[in-house]
Amino acid sequence: MTPTTAPVTRHRFTVEDYQRMAEAGILTEDDRVELIAGNVVDRGPIDVPHSGCVTALTDVLRELVGPRVSLHVQNPIRLGNDSMPRPDLALLERGRYQRRHPTPDDILLVIEVSDSSRDYDRNTKLPLYAAAGIREAWIVDLVAEVIERYTEPREGRYQQVARAGRGEAITSAVLPAIVVPVDDILP
Questions:
Q1: pTM passes above 0.85
Q2: What mean pLDDT comes out for the span 167-176?
Q3: In CATH, which of 3.50.50.60, 1.10.3720.10, 3.40.309.10, 3.90.1570.10 is domain 46-185?
């Protein structure tokens, strides 16, 4: 007899599966995971430069947008039926999100702070945001000390990229009142 091998298939989770795992206690608030294209992805711990940058961004953005925009800090957003990433920051249309997670129609800007996660943020999350039609995404690259602004999502890619380094500022294309000096948020 010749041994046969069965094909290996992966089970892809839906947002509803993922939420049921949380309700059942399989996943907790302390778990650093997110649902990306049906896969539960483990995220590493947050180091001091990363958390400091998120705090600085939150402080700066709160001053710039005031009460007109909701700041969603390291909380999930719903992108279709199979993804619930947790961007470091999402700026949302003002509203109430106690009964549902924000969706692309609610999102004005997502921001990822990247150090050890640079490749993942650029090659996995950024295309996911573009495919969902999120109008603007920023990557704060702590290693290169730049902020990258991505706009004009089309066919899973952002068509326009702008960069600002130390001594410069970056302006949001969606919310022009947001002008962030790079030196104010980098460690």
A1: yes
A2: 96
A3: 3.90.1570.10
